[in-house]
Write a sequence for this structure.
């Protein structure tokens, strides 16, 4: 058995505890969670109870710096609120002890902060950093990626992703109710979909046009005298540098949907569709027409825990663990550049809604560069 890889989790709210449970399901692969950091006592308590039930002794810290200084772990999972990622990542990357990092999406809430993190990471070749864009691992999505990469659909021209779901959940101290904390809805949750569009299109974004608003949810909520400002529905169009087009259709007051995500990818010669959580993929060709469309059930036998994201967190950890074990041979599957571009696309979409016009990715990257240097 290989040496145990010791993990620390920074932020043990809903997602941090999800990581804890996933890592427990990987225990036979030689992993253990040995410490956590979270300032919120009820979150600490819930994580401690879980760890006790797993027979994992856990050292508890209230801040990430103490966790890093303790030297107890080799890998840190950053699952604290979005607006804390930047400082926590900079402190990890500047710490004398190397820690491999799995940081939850979005990498940071602004492009300028993402860039600083990317630059700081360049100086730490002793550390691997993976970004938690885990939708890539959902079995029907992974199957569709495999089909697209296999080339049977031809050159991809159109990628449409519809997410119709329930409203944002309540979070610790309601951090997710304000753009300043999340980066905005199109950064916070839609970075997942922008990441997938880049993968399917096999290209980088050039410009973005969006329309959206907070039309239904959160209007009657007030926190410290302020009404939330996060949009709950949007249409976003993205043009890619190889001529492909993407479209996102987001609705967060659509509990009455059979699927939460419906993804359609059309190439010159065929079309593929993925449905989550039905876990089904359709694939067809122009030559064979409707009668030739195949329906495939997407499954991944490696998944030992489905959790909140259809097994994708489990596969994400499995993948990152193998990158850690094969360090020097294997780069993280989802790297900092993927994290940065997915945030830039979300920021461009948020700015487009504000300004009512197309926003180029270059504009977002340049503008945020000059903000960072001023
Ligand atoms: N991959 C996914 O699909 C997915 C799903 C949900 C959330 N997330 C991401 O996970 C992160 C956490 O979200 P959540 O839903 O668990 O929120 P949450 O509010 O349930 O938990 C956040 C926890 O972080 C703690 N925290 C706050 N500031 C901290 C700090 N400076 N250091 C350490 N801990 C701190 C809070 O006390 C809380 O316990 C966010 O970045 C979110 O975007 C990802």
């Amino acid at each position: 058995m290989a040496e145990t890889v010791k993990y620390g989790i920074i932020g043990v709210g809903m997602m941090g505890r999800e990581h804890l449970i996933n890592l427990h399901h990987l225990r036979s692969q030689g992993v253990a969670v040995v410490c956590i950091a979270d300032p919120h006592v009820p979150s600490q308590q819930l994580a401690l109870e879980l760890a006790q039930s797993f027979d994992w002794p856990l050292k508890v810290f209230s801040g990430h710096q103490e966790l890093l200084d303790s030297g107890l772990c080799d890998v840190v999972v950053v699952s604290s609120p979005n607006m804390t990622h930047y400082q926590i990542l900079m402190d990890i990357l500047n710490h004398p002890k190397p820690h491999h990092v799995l940081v939850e999406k979005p990498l940071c809430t602004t492009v300028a902060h993402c860039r600083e993190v990317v630059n700081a990471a360049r100086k730490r070749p002793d550390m691997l950093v993976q970004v938690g864009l885990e939708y890539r691992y959902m079995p029907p999505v992974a199957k569709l990626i495999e089909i697209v990469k296999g080339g049977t659909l031809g050159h991809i021209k159109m990628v449409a992703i519809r997410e119709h779901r329930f409203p944002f959940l309540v979070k610790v101290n309601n951090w997710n109710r304000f753009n300043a904390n999340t980066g905005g809805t199109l950064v916070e949750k839609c970075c997942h979909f922008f990441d997938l569009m880049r993968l399917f299109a096999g290209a980088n974004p050039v410009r973005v046009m969006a329309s959206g608003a907070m039309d239904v949810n959160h209007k009657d909520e007030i926190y410290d005298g302020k009404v939330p400002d996060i949009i709950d529905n949007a249409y976003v169009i993205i043009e890619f540098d190889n001529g492909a087009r993407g479209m996102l259709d987001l609705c967060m007051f659509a509990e009455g949907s059979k699927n939460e995500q419906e993804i359609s990818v059309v190439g010159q010669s065929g079309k593929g569709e993925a449905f989550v959580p039905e876990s089904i993929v359709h694939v067809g060709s122009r030559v064979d027409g409707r009668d030739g469309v195949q329906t495939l059930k997407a499954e991944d036998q490696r998944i030992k825990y489905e959790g909140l994201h259809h097994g994708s967190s489990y596969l994400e950890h499995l993948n990152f663990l193998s990158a850690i074990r094969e360090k020097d041979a294997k780069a993280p599957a989802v790297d900092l550049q993927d994290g940065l571009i997915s945030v830039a696309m979300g920021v461009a979409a948020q700015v487009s809604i504000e300004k009512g016009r197309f926003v180029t990715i270059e504009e977002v990257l340049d503008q945020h560069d000059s903000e960072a240097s001023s």
Summary: The CA atoms of residues 106 and 188 lie 6 Å apart.
